[in-house]
Amino acid sequence: MGQLKQKQTGVVLFIALIALVVLTLAGIAMVHSTTTANLIAENRAYDLAAVQVSDIGVESAIVKLTNTILAQPDTAIANVYFPLSQALQPDGTPVANWAAIPTATIQGYGVQFVIERMCTGTLPVTSLTTSCMVSNAAVLNNGSKQAGRPALTPPASVYYRISVRATGPKNTTSLIRAMVTY
């Protein structure tokens, strides 16, 4: 039995240590992969929440438009309403002082909106059909279908562009734009 012990050189121990190192590295890689997947899922959840909050901002802007702005559409409201369309920044938002725009906090997100009437030229706008983007009401052909009755054409509806920006946790930002007619 003494001769058998002399021939052992510890190769099995060396192979076992290599296998242990490989398994340890595989375990570390799995933990890292799981952590990364959780961070991606978390960021996606923040993005989706920002979009949902932006939808609430669009609804708030429509309420502001119908309750306040439509009564005097040629009168600007500082940092909220522009009676003429504004130039756009590279991110697609209108050129405005976003730091001065009122911010509402909804579900932990800061929500801001800007409303623009899609008109060009100078104020007051005297002809909506020539100075503004309007719906093509003549195509609707509303009215009676009875022979000899005049077709009734509704008045032209002016387009308004609503730009909403929501900012939240981890620098999450959502930019939503909507067009409405009134």
Structural class: alpha+beta
- Oligomerization state: single chain
Count of distinct structural domains: 1
Helicity range: 25-40%
Measured between the Cα atoms of the first and last residue, the distance is 101 Å
From the alpha carbons, calculate the radius of gyration and give it in angstroms.
32 Å
For the report, how would you describe the main beta sheet? 5 strands, mixed
Q: Write the element-wise H/E pattern from the N-terminal end onward.
A: HHEEEHEEEE
What's the short story on this structure?
The protein is an alpha+beta fold and 182 residues long.
Walkthrough of the structure:
This protein is α+β, with helices and mostly antiparallel strands and 182 residues long. The chain has one domain (2-181). Helix content is 37%, strand content 20%. It has 3 helices and 7 strands. It has helices at residues 2-7, 11-67, 128-131; strands spanning 81-82, 104-106, 109-117, 142-143, 151-152, 159-167, 173-181. The strands form 2 sheets. Strands 1, 2, 3, 6 and 7 form a 5-stranded mixed sheet that branches. A two-stranded antiparallel sheet has the order 4-5.
